[in-house]
Amino acid sequence: MLRRALTNQITRQQFRFYRVNRSNTVINFVPQQEAWVVERFGKFHCVLDPGISVLFPIVDKIAYAHNLKEVAQDIPSQTAVTMDNVTVSMDGVLFYRVVDPYKASYGVENYGYAMQQLAQTTMRAEIGHLPLDRIFSERAQLNAKIVQVINDSTVKAWGIESLRYEILEKGDIHLPQSVMQAMQGQATAERKKRASILESEGERQGAINLAQGQRESIILKSEAEKMEQINKAVGEAEAIKAKATAVAQSIQMISEAIKHENAQKAISLLVADKYMDAFSNLAQKGTTLMLPTSVHDPSSMIAQAINIFDTLTTKRKDMKSIEASNEDKKPEPEK
């Protein structure tokens, strides 16, 4: 208890420079970023702003001189228990400034020491509301929450505004050895889990890429076969068309040749030649044949073919003659 009392007394002495008595020299010069609180007959009179001011001697007293600059206050390391019952040791720094010199003078005895104690208790309380994992991951939210809680208590009552609170980067959070080992094991398990997930994702993506490649290959192959069939069909159609055109032209030429004299003999010879070719092809391709009686005599076969052609020609001429006579016998229309 004696050691704690001595420590508190020394700490209070360290903050005495925030409120320093100034001598009244009648004509007083207030430095920039300072505010002097003047008492007259022991009672608050006014606050002197930076510049020149005239005060009455003896009756006016400069009771407090406040520094209006931003002040960085170290927060000593302290032990706290998290929500999941883990003991941690943390230290930080608090940044604040005086916004109301009157309240800073008469609202609190020593606002520097009071701000330090309030920051410690607030940090201990806020750590108790969070599990250990969130303390590491939500440090910014923790700092903002501490500043908010401090301002709710100090701005209106003491005239002190907390600007920000920061947990120190070096040696800021101290954990027991058993907790450190447990956290390392947890981190190792998490890394293994992520590695297995990444490996499975890679295999899955590889299978998908392979399936897509096979699918595209099949599609391209089918498209190629389709184009091949289309080109083949177009080629066959063109060939049939060309063949039909050639046959039509040959028929036209034959019909033109029939009109000439002595064409019948040439045609008879052509028919006989085609008859022999057809019979020859039939003998090569078929297995069952119906042969004419004169197969041993090709000359008689040719004569037979010519006789058939002549008979057809004669019948054709007779049909044309009958048609012509019928046309002549039609009665003329009455005039």
UniProtKB/TrEMBL annotation:
GO BP of this protein: mitochondrion organization
Keywords noted in UniProt: Mitochondrion
Subcellular location: Mitochondrion
Statement: the UniProt record of this protein carries the keyword Kinase: no
Pfam families to which the protein is assigned, alphabetical: Band_7, Band_7_C
Residue intervals of the Band domain: 25-187
Originating organism: Rozella allomycis (strain CSF55)
Family designation: Belongs to the band 7/mec-2 family.
Protein name, per record: Stomatin-like protein 2
Main location: mitochondrion
UniProt cross-references to InterPro entries, sorted A to Z: Band7/mec-2_domain, Band_7, Band_7/SPFH_dom_sf, STML2-like_C, Stomatin_HflK_fam
UniProt keyword Protease present: no
Any one Gene Ontology cellular component term annotated for this protein: side of membrane
